[in-house]
Amino acid sequence: MIVWVGDNNKASIICPKCRFETNLDATKYKTTQRKLKAKCKCGEIFRFTIEFRRQYRKDVRLSGEYNIKGKKEKGEIIIKDLSLSGIKFESFMPNQISTDDMLEVKFNLNNPSKKEIRKEVKVIWVDNRIVGAQFIERKLYQKDLGFYLNF
Fold first, then answer.
1. Domain 58-149 is in which class?
2. Phi-psi map region of 70: left, alpha, beta (phi>0 left; psi -120 to 50 alpha)
3. What span, in angstroms and rounded, lies between the C-alpha atoms of 67 and 57?
4. Closest Cα to residue 96, out of 77, 73, 78, 79?
């Protein structure tokens, strides 16, 4: 279970069995372990993950492609997760993508509209063929992505 932390660093933990709710000061977990175990007053023991992200991130599996700006490299990708502010994807082939590279990514949503999304991103991190990137222009396609992410 994922528990979202608010602007005040407080997280509301709800027992999955009895629905008892308690608040947690999550400040000390910002730089340490975020996967925790809790025991409710009803005796239920459960695990949860504290999430400090501002934007909801949806796990997806969408086909797409990338093109590195200023280099002659492009390739096919699978988008693994998506939010209003960024994207995580895996390239099919080894690549020359580096932190701070600017890419153009293109993919289609897998909802009834099948909307094509074409966005410029800045690479934040790279781990072999998996890349995390931040959208440069967040307002472009915001309505389409927002609707998609909520369903």
1. mainly beta
2. left
3. 23
4. 73
User: 117, 135 in Cβ contact below 8 A?
Assistant: no
Whether the CB-CB separation of 70 and 33 falls below 8 Å is answered with: no
Q: Where are the domains of the chain?
A: 2-51, 58-149
Give the Cα separation of 9 and 29 in Å (integer).
10
Find all residues with CB under 8 Å of 139, minimum gap 6, and list them: none
Helices (H) and strands (E) in the chain, counts: 1, 11
- Whether the pTM exceeds 0.70: the reply is no
Tell the residue number behind the tokens 């991190």, with chain if given.
125
pLDDT tens for residues 61-81?
999 999 999 888 999 999 999
Reported as type and span, the H/E element at residue 149 is: helix 142-149
